[in-house]
Design brief:
34% strand; disordered N terminus; alpha+beta
């Protein structure tokens, strides 16, 4: 009985100890940032001289260039401005990146971490380069696989390697890289509610003028006032004209002088708050390209500051919103 009691007491003590371990909060924390060296000490002030950013992959190179205005632009998109927050995220990520753990220095193992030669066919790595105006590198780093976070308080990490070194590292920090230029630009053109459109005058090449206008009531739908004689019209198609500027985005962008395609026509939209928007359109195959300009007060100035100098490829379905024919608005057109 004594032996049995001792065993039971021992088991109970072990269970109690286990419960304490399970219930005690995990107080272990990742080492402080200061315990790991920066990948690029003193980088922040040197970034003032940055003039070019490159993301080199085996299948191409993304280039960002700092314009005379100080804005970062994308040469592959006719020098359209890049999203400032995306550029800032990469540059700040470089300045804050810390080397927390050395990994392999074996060239045959680099592919497993995604830090192999980025120019090799099929490579998953990317070479990030920040250059000054003379083309001299300010910072260069091969960026590989990210390490997934399993706890909320654990910072992001990624495998990296300096281009001229064999040693790979696990680095702490966020360094997102995208080689697709379209992911670096804000593709929003406008977002103007349908009820602000009061009238539209459409002039397609080789066709008569089509005029739509709302009634006096604020909620009145758009109606065709010219030509006077029309087939029975479809309310949904008319409403699509009013919705033409809602959540309007572009697929591609070019300099306005380089807008491709054959001349399709132009349209003038009258809106509330003393705003008017003019659209000039061309079509190349199935691609619809437009230029936009605004007249009015401060709102027009803001829109022109965004639109001036650019031609946008928009969804081909926008043709019936911006330059509809009378047959596009007829009921049978939707059947």
């Amino acid at each position: 009985m004594k032996r049995r009691n001792l065993i039971l007491l021992g088991g109970a003590a072990a269970a109690t100890t286990g419960a304490v371990i399970l219930l005690t909060p995990d107080r272990t924390e990742p080492p402080p940032n200061s315990a790991s060296p920066l990948a690029f000490p003193g980088l922040a002030p040197r970034l003032a001289d940055a003039a070019r950013i490159e993301v080199v992959r085996h299948d191409g190179t993304l280039v960002l260039r700092r314009a005379a205005s100080g804005a970062w632009v994308l040469p592959a998109r006719a020098d359209h401005p890049a999203r400032p927050e995306r550029v800032r995220e990469v540059l700040v990520g470089l300045t804050e990146l810390r080397l927390i753990e050395p990994r392999t220095a074996n060239p045959e193992m680099l592919e497993r971490l995604g830090v192999e030669d980025p120019t090799r066919p099929g490579a998953t790595s990317a070479l990030l380069r920040v250059l000054d105006a003379n083309g001299a590198p300010i910072a260069e780093l091969i960026v590989g696989r990210r390490r997934m976070r399993v706890q909320g308080n654990v910072p992001e990490s990624v495998h990296v390697r300096r281009p001229n070194e064999a040693q790979a590292w696990l680095a702490e920090g966020r360094l997102p890289l995208d080689a697709d230029p379209s992911l670096w630009i804000d593709r929003d053109i406008a977002n103007i509610p349908r009820d602000r459109i009061r009238a539209a005058e459409i002039r397609r090449a080789g066709e008569g003028t089509l005029v739509l206008r709302r009634g006096r009531e604020l909620e009145a739908p758009l109606a065709v006032v010219e030509p006077a004689e029309t087939p029975e019209l479809d309310e949904i198609s008319l409403d699509e004209v009013a919705r033409g500027f809602e959540f309007l985005t572009f697929l591609e962008v070019r300099a306005a002088a380089d807008m491709p395609g054959e001349w399709l026509g132009e349209a003038d939209f009258e809106l509330t708050d003393n705003l008017r928007i003019a659209i000039a359109a061309r079509k190349e195959g199935e691609e619809l390209w437009v230029r936009l300009s605004a007249t009015g007060d401060a709102e027009a100035e803001r829109l022109n500051a965004r639109w001036r100098g650019w031609a946008y490829q928009v969804g081909q379905w926008k043709e019936k919103a911006f330059l509809p024919r009378i047959e596009d608005l007829a009921k049978q057109a939707r059947n």
